[in-house]
Amino acid sequence: MQHQVTIRYGILRNIENVYTPTPTLRKGDKVVIRSSRGVELGEVVSQPQEVDDKTVVQNMGEVLYKVTEEDKKKQKEIEEEKIPSEFSLCQKKIKEHNLPMKLASVEHLFGSKKIIFYFLAKGRVDFRELVKDLAKEYKSRIEMKQIGVRDEARLLAEYEHCGRELCCRTFLKDLEPVTMKMAKNQKATLDPSKISGRCGRLMCCLRYEDNAYEELKHYLPKKGTLIMTTKGVGEVVDYDILQQKVTMETKDKKLIVVLKDEILEKVNETRTNMGKECESNCEHRCE
């Protein structure tokens, strides 16, 4: 029987399950792991769990050991001395080669001679000569990684409008797309400055409750539907998804708010994209 634990590691705060020979690890412990990138530092974010030998995953990372005082000194040296120097030199070389790219950050892996340079650019960049210069200078394996604005926020920003640390820096593993429809469903303001995150894109948290809003929305009649209620007959002009209420307009132009349970029946559904009535005598129903 083996054990696995969830680890957060790397400058992009990747989250990954890895095997551990130490089932006594606790959340918050600093460890040295072997990931797909090499040997690096990580932080335990879950309790170890037993894994059946039949469910063993090939090429999964592993915890090597808990961080020692010597490891902490080495990491401090990397962060305070090596990384600033590598960042400055790379910026200088970018200017020398006149490359259309913006350097965002540098990551120097703890236990291997590998340096990752994160940059932003509008299109593809031919950085082969830049890589040659950096490899010659540092005698290390150089990786240039192009990122987008969401990853830039994950690298450089810390707190969101709500006062909490960015979701992408704490627990989000994958940055899934967020749409304006999600904001509209939740009746959120459409002011870009209020629904955009530090990256300038729609906030990831708009996605969290979207499934619940979509499910509740199906219980309410669509706008334009003629409904019969305990308060009369009217056409739906608006609805409140969370409170399960609809606003209907009666024939005398009055607006009445009714609960979902007060709707007796839908007199007719709203119809969109309807073409002319079919004049064919066929027995098939026209769509």
TrEMBL record:
Positions of the PSP1 C-terminal domain: 61-147
GO cellular component annotations of the record: cytoplasm
Pfam families noted in UniProt: PSP1
InterPro entries the UniProt entry points to: PSP1-like, PSP1_C
PANTHER family in UniProt: PROTEIN PSP1
Protein name: PSP1 C-terminal domain-containing protein
